[in-house]
What we know:
Layout: E1 30-34, E2 43-49, H1 56-66, E3 71-76, E4 82-88, E5 93-94, H2 98-110, E6 120-124, E7 127-134, E8 137-143, E9 148-149, H3 152-162, E10 166-171, E11 175-180, H4 183-187, H5 193-196, E12 203-209, E13 221-227, E14 232-235, H6 239-253, E15 258-262, E16 268-275, E17 278-283, E18 285-287, H7 295-298, H8 308-311
Parallel strand pairs: 2-3, 4-6, 11-12, 13-15
Antiparallel strand pairs: 1-2, 1-18, 3-4, 4-5, 6-7, 7-8, 8-17, 9-10, 10-11, 12-13, 13-14, 15-16, 16-17
Amino acid sequence: MTPGKQGFFSPPSSSQETFDATRSDCDLPTVVHAFADDRFAGNPAAVVLYEKYPATAECLRLAQRFRQPVTVLLRPLEVAGHFEIRWFTQNAELDLCGHGTLAATYWLYFFAHYGRHLRVSYQSQSGLLHGWLEGDVVQVALPAIDTAAANSTEYETIERCMGLPIKEVRKAYDDFVVVVGDERLVLDYEPNFRTIAEIDCRGLVLTALVDPKGALAEFDIVSRFFSPRIAINEDQVCVSAHCKLYPYWARVLGRTELRALQASESGGVLQLSSSDGRVIVAGKAKLGNEGPLDDHHGLPFAWKRWPRSLQWR
């Protein structure tokens, strides 16, 4: 492979080398904006390819220096098209990061020139994951994560913390899913991150059904995700949260295909379905150096400012 900078690689060639992750403080990785399109800025991730991973402490230092919500580390395995994948925030290694996986898949196809007709397989702490392309849309297959009703103490703690009229609280292994009865409660919520950080979980998913006659009628569900404990106050597009939302809402709605809006400042659209017990998450993406994220995208909640006739088409 052609040596790149900062321990990662440029598009593949015939040479094979290992690189030092600390060689230059000025070098930056490739940044991919997962779920970015003409309306939404999506969620960025730094993508780094290694022949051999640095120590975990060094991986965390890299994530802190790159200053992206997530830094994705890839390592090619002996079988063609198979990679080991790891995900780091600025203070933790994650068991699963869907937007980072989608970003890595996009990077392999559109930057590293991996064959677009081939599937990619990832070995991860959450088991075997897969990614592929359908047209210009990236698809990733991730584990479905079931939730159970929170106990009364957890419900009361979260209701007090969030200060919202809550309809239901569900618990996954590392998150709480907070269901409310009106999309406006999700869209207008102003989080207190200090209070949220006191709750014993990775993060809180705030979600509701969309009004089928309202401005967001092209979507089925809306959500936001808050995770100050892992140094991401509000995740711009959290795919692992949708691995928990999909089984819940698919069961409530009696449907197998859902269109989800993550109503963060950047915003993003996720197409959700299932196959063989996996959640299939589909979305577009753009490389950070492609220049799609103009001044309009840089404004907080810029997607809300689009004319309705253009915004919801």
